[in-house]
Amino acid sequence: MPNLEHPAYPAADLLRLESLVPCRESQVSTLLSIFGERQQFSFPSIFIYGHTSSGKTYVMQTLLTTLQLPHVFVNCVEYFTSRLLLEEILIQLQSCSSGTEQTSPVHCDTLNDFVRLFKQAVASRELQDQTLYIVLDRAEQLREMEANILPAFLRLQELTDRNVTVVLLSEIVWELFRPNTGCFEPFTMYFPDYSIGHLQKILSQNHPSEYSADFYAAYINILLGVFYMVCRDLKELRHLAALNFAKYCEPVVRGEANERDTRKLWKNIEPHLKKAMQTVYLREISSSQWERLQHDGGEPGQLKGLSAHTHVELPYYSKFLLIAAYLASYNPVRTDKRFFLKHHGKIRKTNFMKKHEKTSNHLLGPKPFPLDRLLAILYSIVDNRVAPTANIFSQITSLVTLQLLSTVGQNDQLDGPRYKCTVSLDFIRAIAR
């Protein structure tokens, strides 16, 4: 028995919609109840929120496209100003009403112009007889626009006197949207995260045709057993599944095992999944490079130059300033003489020094240092003579702006500014290399 039933839509379309949105049948059923029939006035505004990769955008696009409902879909990150956003809605609306792509430009400077042009665009007979849906993806960007944009979209049905419903998709809750002056409250709807059973069902649908569905489902079960505790993102898991499936199939391809030898397949894929755990979300290497690394049996850290750290381009002296700042943050002041002077004399290792050197300074975090100490270390690690010019001081300010250094304390201290290095050891190794 199908889970989606609605008298206003054909059963074949609902059955196809159910197959396209697995594990989201309850949310789609609620949306269909809110939408009602095509000619009925729906709720003026709907606010849908949930974590990233919980199916909000995909469900809305699939629902409106499958049921052939007139709609406008706009990403607020792409159209980041109110003028761009309003003009894009009008352009899509004109192409929706005429059935062809709209090429003529639309100029809309104010909200009053938008309401007037919106009424003209909806004047066609097709759009007057059914509800028009305006979907604004990444709607949290509306908070950065003019103060009247969000309240106007929430009651656009009232302003235009047309059968229109605005759907806002966001990753944050409605309480962070609500203006201080008050506004029309939308119907709020929450998309929960996919459970491990939902992820198993969704990912298993992508099995290759040359292998059985049970074989691919067993692989997805192994993959989720490794990655589910650290990654719930459906897109990332789908990427990992496609990336490591060839390695999982190697014993079957070589004839060393069949599809039912789960233990042997697990022993083959386990070390490679542990390597893949180091690159979750990071994308430090491309898919082709990862496959080549698996084939050669190397470690992810062996691919020098692929880390995002090495892509930071800094001026010549900024690199030395950053290295000097790292040394000043993680080395005690008493060790400067031993490390940076050629004729430092005899250093006695007292019990006090031994007791404190048992704890790694990397575990204690970076320590603040004054500007004169930074410059003193810089002069000692650079081969040629460096003059304390304005160029050097401007590069220190640039490192603070890039958040590679941070300022500690107040700016009006009599003893000069103090800084702290905020980058990791791997970053410094990449710079020093």
TrEMBL record:
Primary site of residence: nucleus
Segments forming domain Origin recognition complex subunit 5 C-terminal: 314-433
Biological function: Component of the origin recognition complex (ORC) that binds origins of replication. DNA-binding is ATP-dependent. The specific DNA sequences that define origins of replication have not been identified yet. ORC is required to assemble the pre-replication complex necessary to initiate DNA replication.
Entry-linked InterPro entries: AAA_16, ORC5, ORC5_C, ORC5_lid, P-loop_NTPase
This protein's GO CC annotations: nuclear origin of replication recognition complex
UniProt-listed Pfam families: AAA_16, ORC5_C, ORC5_lid
Subunit and partners: Component of ORC, a complex composed of at least 6 subunits: ORC1, ORC2, ORC3, ORC4, ORC5 and ORC6. ORC is regulated in a cell-cycle dependent manner. It is sequentially assembled at the exit from anaphase of mitosis and disassembled as cells enter S phase.
Superkingdom of the source species: Eukaryota
Family: Belongs to the ORC5 family.
Domain Orc1-like AAA ATPase: 21-167
GO terms, molecular function: ATP binding; DNA replication origin binding
Subcellular location: Nucleus
Domain ORC5 lid: 216-283
Record GO biological process: DNA replication initiation
Name by which UniProt lists this protein: Origin recognition complex subunit 5
Keywords (A to Z) from UniProt: ATP-binding, DNA replication, Nucleotide-binding, Nucleus
